[in-house]
Design brief:
about 80 residues, little secondary structure, 2 helices, about 0% strand, flat
Length: about 80
């Protein structure tokens, strides 16, 4: 029995280029959208240069506090917050 995938898929791709590059991408039948990265909120922009040592002491959460997981694909790009 052969297994086949029938459906839609999503493949994000980060591209650096000039306007002509993006105009060409939009001519490809498989490309549906080209978007630019979001602008950083000015209120938190300073945090991008903050290191773990500058944060200070962090309070221990309560025993019944909800668990939170953050998955950040930029960890391989060494974000400034992790440069400690």
């Amino acid at each position: 029995m052969a297994v086949r995938y029938i459906g839609t898929s999503f493949t994000p791709l980060r591209v650096a280029g000039i306007g002509v590059t993006f105009q060409w991408l939009l001519t490809l039948p498989t490309v549906r959208m080209v978007d630019s990265p979001p602008n950083i909120d000015e209120e938190v922009e300073y945090l991008l240069e903050t290191t773990a040592f500058e944060i200070g002491e962090v309070a221990v959460p309560a025993d019944d506090a909800p668990a939170i997981a953050i998955i950040d694909s930029e960890i391989n790009e060494a974000p400034p917050f992790l440069r400690a």
